[in-house]
Amino acid sequence: MPEQDMRHSVGKHVAGIASPVVATNDATRASVPARHEHDKKRVWTLGSVVVTATPEGYAATGSRSATRTDTALIDVPQSVQVLTRTLLDEQDRQTLADALVNVSGVTPVRPEETLFTQPIVRGFPAEIYLDGLPAFGTTASIDPTSLVGIERVEVLKGPTSTVYGGGAGAPLGGLINVVSKRPEAEAGGFVALRTGSFSTWNPYADLNVPLGAGVAARITADYQGNTSWIDKLKGNRWSVQPSLSFQLDPDTELLLRGQYDRRSQVEYSGLPAAQALAGQLDRDAFPGTTTGQPRSTTENRLTTAEFRHDFSDDVRLMVTGRHFDGRVRDYGSFVYPEFLPPDPATPTVYPIFTLYLPNTVKEDTLDANLLVRVDALGGKHELLGGIDVDRTRVDSAVRFDGVPVGELDLARPNYTLAFGAIPSASTTQTNRYRTVAAYVQDQATYGRLHLLGSLRLTQFNLRQLEQGIDTRYSRVTPRVGATFDLVPGVALYAAYATGFRGAVNFIGLEPPKPETSSNVEGGLKFALTRSGLSGTVAAFEQTRRNVATADPNHPLFSIQSGEQRARGVEGDLTWEPVPAFSLLANYAHTEAEVTKDTIIPVGDRLPRVPRNSGRVAARYRVLGGFAKGLSFGAGVTAFSARDITLPNSVPVPGYAVVDAQAAYDFGRFTVELSAVNLFGRNAFDTYQYLSFPVVIPTQPRSVYVTLKTRL
């Protein structure tokens, strides 16, 4: 049943094929281990059923991403945070970056900078996976264009290399798994229109149709066009996600998915940080050419097949395969003071350069695993064994001739510069990655003690044609952890995990070594059903080794002698004492610094990582009386100062912003109003573009209205 319909249907009779919905009341959570949404919806029943449900809130009870098995969050010896569909809807989250502020210790990537960087979890780069499989990227170019077809977002903190890998290797800092909606047995869906500030025009839809006995189809689609608070900046995006589910028999399911995304926007390259922060520049200036600059485009096409067969209640086979085809055509214009600074007599007048960065990625990946549940050695065991095979081909180039096309005064911009011809000077990079891995995992329960142990053997082949590199790594990565139930709903946990990945685009005199990471963490987990309190409080220390750093004896080359460390404490808590009220709070204190390097001073803070950050958000829903259907909420998000580059140069001051939302459900219709930066706080965010310290102004006060009708 679509979750929006669930809010309006209690005791609804469903004829024909139906998928059961499990009520998530306190009694259910207290007595039954959490099961993943996939398992709730995969059992199809003929006939008429009565469904009784309470609305989903902000708290999730289980996750599949952490272990590739359906596991209650309180039993997972790792900090795992789940962003539910209800949270995404009620907070009007339109991008992954918007959603991730609800997780502690995460620095999202803005949509404008997805081509140049990755999101950060606990101080280190994290990777974005889609439905448990990688889609190659050393940047966030795979960042989902639309969240309309997303069921939930699961954030795994720390290395996750024992059951995940592919592309350039396994995630070192963390994994953000975006879980798509699945076809359901009951017809439903919605169409909606969102509009508001900066000429935003955003129609979107989610349609689910049963096609016959055991067959259902779903399609989600989204389009948005908008301008920006930044001069001359505009763009559009669209996404279509069709899926088809076949219940071949009561124990066998085949799911086919497609995803086709395209983003097109005038590229923004950032303002020189020191002058922008000092107020010497027009904060909304566009630092580039405004005539003839092609829009940068990102196109991602994914085709996925998932096969599941239950041999019995205790034996399950899962096979998932994907083909990913990504294409980036990046046209940029920018200032580059490290190469050619402005004349000291006119310090705000900058030479403007242009570049062209084409990039094509093709990736084929397969994961197959077998789950067996047994009672042995005095405990209950969930044994998982699997294999991963991944083949990735990356072709990229940089076209930059170092000749400015003119000058622009960023304090008083007069936009007359033309992009001109695409630069002719070019360097190419051709990389080939191949991964073959096998993994085993045991989740054992002995009364109040829950143990997790896993091991992965990976063979990773790296070819870099221009550098003449053809090398092979073999690595064993372990993971161990335990949780202990102190009292019902409160557990103590501790864990150790490792990660490794290939060095990407490394240029040195010696063949590259794999980068590695290790993580130690421990803390408390909560699932107090009577009070409605759930979440995790953790302390951690994570180290990243073999980081590429400049070779002091050979300019333009690198060596892998760098080491970085992040340590800190964090908390992610949700309090839902009654269905009408949800309160989310998170906080992270992170000390992320360089601990070994040849050039960068030891002790420099890692870029974009605030020492302190947090968010508090609340929602109240009127469930009865004359105002039934009305709901409203607000949140505040805060960051302390962050550095932009290594070595540290210009810190960006911290800030706090407030968002607010209100909605009214009546019949099949919903009207929603949302506000970003409610009090108009003027601030800057760190920004990644090449290596010069630049910033981007935060979004000013913006208001959006959404009209939705359920079908």
TrEMBL record:
What is the protein's major site of localization? membrane
Q: Name one GO cellular component term.
A: cell outer membrane
Q: Tell me a Gene Ontology molecular-function term this record carries.
A: siderophore uptake transmembrane transporter activity
UniProtKB keywords: Cell outer membrane, Ion transport, Iron, Iron transport, Membrane, Receptor, Signal, TonB box, Transmembrane, Transmembrane beta strand, Transport
Membrane protein topology class? Multi-pass membrane protein
TonB-dependent receptor-like beta-barrel domain location is: 246-678
Q: Where is the TonB-dependent receptor plug domain?
A: 73-169
Tell where it localizes: Cell outer membrane
In which domain of life is the source organism classified? Answer: Bacteria
Pfam families under this entry? Answer: Plug, TonB_dep_Rec_b-barrel
Biological process (GO), any one: siderophore transport
- Identify its protein family: Belongs to the TonB-dependent receptor family.
Q: What is this protein called?
A: Iron complex outermembrane recepter protein
Q: Which organism is it from?
A: Rhodanobacter glycinis
**Lineage, highest ranks first:** Bacteria, Pseudomonadati, Pseudomonadota, Gammaproteobacteria, Lysobacterales
